[in-house]
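Work Package 3 committed the consortium to producing structural models of liganded targets before the mid-term review. Because experimental data for this complex are still outstanding, the team generated a predictive model from sequence and the ligand definition alone, so that downstream docking and mutagenesis planning could proceed in parallel. The input record is reproduced below exactly as it was submitted to the modelling pipeline, together with the SMILES string for pyridoxal-5'-phosphate.
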Amino acid sequence: MTMIGDKLQRVHARIAAACAEAGRRAGDVTLLAVSKTFGPEAVREAHAAGQLAFGENYIQEAVEKIALLQELDLQWHCIGPIQSNKTRLVAENFGWAHSVDRLKIAQRLDEQRPEHLGPLNVCIQVNIDGGGAKSGVTPQEALALALAVSRMPRLRLRGIMTIPEPQDDFGAQRAVHAKARDLFEEMQSAGLDVDTLSMGMTADLEAAIHAGSTMVRIGTAIFGGR
Ligand SMILES: *Cc1c(COP(=O)(O)O)cnc(C)c1O
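The resulting structure, written out as tokens with the ligand in place, is given here.
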């Protein structure tokens, strides 16, 4: 077992334990391996250990990596800020975009998504705790943007993504994640066909799973410190 394979196994064990604790099935939570700043060899190693979905923040860096790893059948998720001049790269290279937080960005992704690739999976990034100068729509704005995305032919609305401010306390982490879950359920009640609550990172994956996360985005615990 390689070091990355070993760490992946430990993350899977953490996910399974958190699911058991929360009375959820381990299969309900998808692991997204965040490979930002790590090279293609690290991704190859994770893939050899069975990992298929990878998250990237820096679009230019990601596109180069994606090209080098084309022969592997990987699923690429854009989880970093998307500027207007980068939408085409996202539309043409990724399977998912978690960080859509403006109508204009969604419209450009919809226009630029090549038809043969099928719809681009989209999560609305929500600034759930009102933290600093962070990306993301407010929870109040999220429903309207989600509705707009749900009507775009080359996008497929999947859910929401959050990056709360780091907190040490489990209860505090969980309280913020619970707000995201409430918003997610509000979307479902509004008739939106959403299935993805993208939240939880290395430091707070247990609290996120407790609150209902369906996709945790883990970098440090798999690839090491950046
Ligand atoms: C870097 C990053 C992660 C992974 O964070 P770790 O703490 O290394 O697990 C998850 N989501 C986003 C949006 C990130 O930028």
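Reviewers should note the following from the model. The two ends are 22 Å apart (CA to CA). These observations will guide the Year 2 experiments.
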